[in-house]
Write a structure and sequence with these properties.
By secondary structure, the protein is α/β, with parallel strands linked by helices. The protein is built from 10 helices and 7 strands. A 7-stranded mixed beta sheet has the order 1-2-3-4-5-6-7. Strand 6 (229-234), helix 9 (239-251) and strand 7 form a beta-alpha-beta unit. The N and C termini lie close together (9 Å). 46% of the residues are buried.
């Protein structure tokens, strides 16, 4: 594949890059290699595999990426807590996993197992019998479970009509299945990423239901902890909100990242599908000094 160089600003063509996607290594529906193949079909040149609290699918994705001419950036999406809210941080890790991140990922896996038990117990009280076994069945593997697995179990049991309703009633922020006490603090997971030589990216900041003021506080705390970038665009979002977010990033000298947050084929999202980036002076994350070598290398 002949890749067009990525622009130094968001004014150019960024359609060939997607820095937030999931595979069966966490709660995605495609194996890592199959996800890379789909990215190839959609003419992406750069991608990051950002499975939840794991990097177990990266090697497989990179091998397939080398065969197809796609640059696969090692990455992960880390769960954390901030002021009682479940906040996700994407770690873009050109050097791979290193201590303390590697130890942190092991702790995250254990926390996910404990969390799944708590979620199952709570959902069983709401009518989902054998919740843990049902979630494990829909997951189809022994990987740590996530809320989408329980959402699919709720759908299959006929308790809700679809995934969106499952999150709205049972698993979304503040609902009975939203268990966050087991996650480390935001500052800690940022430290893991930075210490590993990576770039810490605040994931989908418009998805947490925060007021503009509270979102600014989150950005301030994230930046103070060592965070370097924020997802300016995550999937499809309101263009006015995107422009306002861009202003907040520019005020804080933060880089902007983009990603679809793709999980499964057939939905409204696909690799590389997302809202356009407005004209802004926010620098793209691929121009960060820690990532320039990766994005500048030929495939």
């Amino acid at each position: 594949m002949l890749m067009i160089p990525l622009p130094d600003a968001f004014e150019g063509d960024t359609s060939g890059v997607d820095l937030h996607m999931h595979s069966t290594a966490s709660d995605g529906r495609l194996p890592p290699a199959a996800l890379v193949e789909l990215c190839h079909q959609r003419q992406l040149g750069w991608m990051a595999l950002t499975d939840h609290d794991t990097m177990s699918g990266v090697n497989e994705a990179q091998r397939r990426g080398t065969e197809l001419g796609i640059k696969v950036l090692p990455a992960t999406e880390l769960s954390s807590q901030w002021r009682g809210i479940n906040i996700h941080v994407v770690g873009l890790l050109p050097g791979g996993s290193k201590p303390p991140l590697s130890e942190g990922l092991e702790n995250q896996a254990r926390a996910r197992e404990q969390r799944s038990i708590v979620i199952a117990e709570r959902l069983e009280k709401r009518g989902l019998n054998d919740a843990l076994a049902r979630a494990r069945k829909v997951a189809g593997s022994d990987r740590p479970l996530g809320r989408p697995d329980f959402a699919r179990a709720l759908v299959e049991a006929g308790i809700v009509a679809d995934m969106k309703t499952a999150f709205a009633r049972y698993l979304g922020s503040g609902k009975v299945g939203d268990v966050k006490a087991l996650w480390p603090f935001l500052s800690e997971v940022v430290e893991w990423v930075v210490a590993a030589g990576g770039v810490a990216v605040l994931a989908h900041p418009l998805h947490y239901g925060l007021t503009r003021r509270k979102r600014g506080q989150l950005l301030d705390d994230f930046r103070e902890a060592g965070g370097q970038a924020v997802e300016l665009v995550s999937g499809f979002q309101n263009p006015d909100m995107t422009r306002d977010l861009a202003r907040q990033l520019q005020e804080r000298n933060l880089y902007g990242s983009i990603g679809s947050d793709f999980h499964f084929p057939g939905g409204h999202l696909a690799p590389g599908s997302m809202s356009p980036v407005p004209r802004t002076a926010v620098p793209p994350v691929w121009t960060h000094p820690r990532l320039q070598a990766f994005f500048g290398q030929p495939c």
